[in-house]
Amino acid sequence: MSPEVNGEGDVYEELLSADPVDYKYYVVHDGSTYRTVVLRVTSKLWGQKRILGAVDPVPDHADRITSLMDRLDMRAIGVDLVRTDDRWYAVDLNPCPSFVRTGLEGALVDSIESALPE
Q1: What string of DSSP letters covers 1-49?
Q2: pTM of the model
Q3: pLDDT band at 57; cut points 50, 70, 90
């Protein structure tokens, strides 16, 4: 079932009073460092998803995501954040994001190659 504002589903979470924009953090460890790209995207809750453009990552958000990756021994992740008046919330975590239109394709290849046994 596609998500929608005040829609029904197996799990219900009260709608946050947030802008209808998701900040999609894509993070890849390329074998030597973390590479982060953030895309502003219209929320699927408000209709068709559209990429609005890239923005600089908030350093604290990137640090928390990479810390999570370290604890879970992950090489790549996607995390969606939304902003309310004065707070940020993680609303989705994807361990296998597509990385479409992120420019991280080379970092993904490097990550895979660096993880292979010699």
Answers
A1: ----TT---SS--PPP---SEEEEEEEEE-SSSEEEEEEEEE-GGGSS-
A2: 0.84
A3: very high
